[in-house]
Inverse folding.
């Protein structure tokens, strides 16, 4: 039951940096305590919101990439819901999409390898003419 | 032959006054020279010529349609915030499906507006 999720959430723009750090670290401990791993934490910085949420016109975007089961996400979302500075969040499961992308990439690479020997002489000629 | 053409020419030369009086004739005739090869104009008359629309994602081989990529998604959202239909953008069905999900996710996290340009 190892799935990869992206949890994006927005905190209020007037939040202090250390408070934000604290919030993120509590979320991380919540993840690790329910047998998950935090793969990446990305602060996307302050952005203007496309619409007003509550009374905020902009917010700080944070992106967490976590790995674990559904129960973990349940817990994480509950925490986000009760934490006051978080104004909105979104969880997206990404492992299946990633798998699909990898598959497509693999197919494309395989195709490239097949066509590479044939394409190489063709690729050489224009370069030669370009040098002349 | 020459006489015939002359005669025809004469006949035509007498005709123009009539043709011009009708006035509507030049309309459909005008766009024809430029019509087939020229840029697809709106007033193509009867013979409409439309550039074939192609799916941006197929052409540029963009497989990863992600809700975080606001710049990409914004191209397929109308000024009003609506998702632009396939028939206008030419995006193929599988890609439009992914695109619409991505746009909806982006709306949810306030990267794109639900309705109208923001504020």
């Amino acid at each position: 039951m190892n799935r990869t999720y992206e949890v994006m959430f927005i905190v209020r723009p007037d939040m202090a940096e250390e408070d934000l750090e604290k919030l993120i670290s509590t979320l991380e401990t919540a993840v690790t305590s329910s047998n998950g791993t935090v793969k990446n934490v990305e602060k996307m910085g302050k952005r203007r919101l496309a619409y007003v949420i509550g009374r905020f016109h902009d917010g700080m975007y944070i992106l967490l990439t976590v790995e674990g089961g559904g129960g973990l996400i349940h817990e994480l979302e509950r925490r986000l819901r009760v934490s006051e500075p978080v104004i909105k969040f979104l969880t997206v499961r990404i492992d299946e999409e990633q798998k699909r992308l990898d598959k497509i990439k693999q197919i494309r690479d395989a195709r490239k390898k097949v066509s590479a020997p044939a394409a190489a002489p063709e690729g050489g000629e224009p370069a030669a003419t370009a040098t002349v | 032959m020459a006489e015939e053409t002359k005669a025809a020419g004469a006949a035509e030369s007498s005709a123009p006054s009539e043709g011009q009086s009708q006035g509507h004739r030049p309309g459909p005739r005008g766009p024809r020279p430029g019509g087939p090869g020229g840029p697809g104009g709106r007033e193509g008359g009867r013979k409409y010529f439309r550039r074939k629309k192609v799916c941006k994602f197929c052409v540029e081989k963009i497989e990863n349609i992600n809700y975080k990529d606001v710049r990409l998604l914004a191209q397929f959202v109308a000024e009003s915030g609506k998702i632009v239909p396939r028939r206008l953008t030419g995006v193929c069905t599988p890609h439009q499906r992914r695109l619409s999900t991505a746009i909806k996710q982006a709306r949810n996290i306030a990267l794109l507006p639900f309705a109208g340009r923001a504020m």
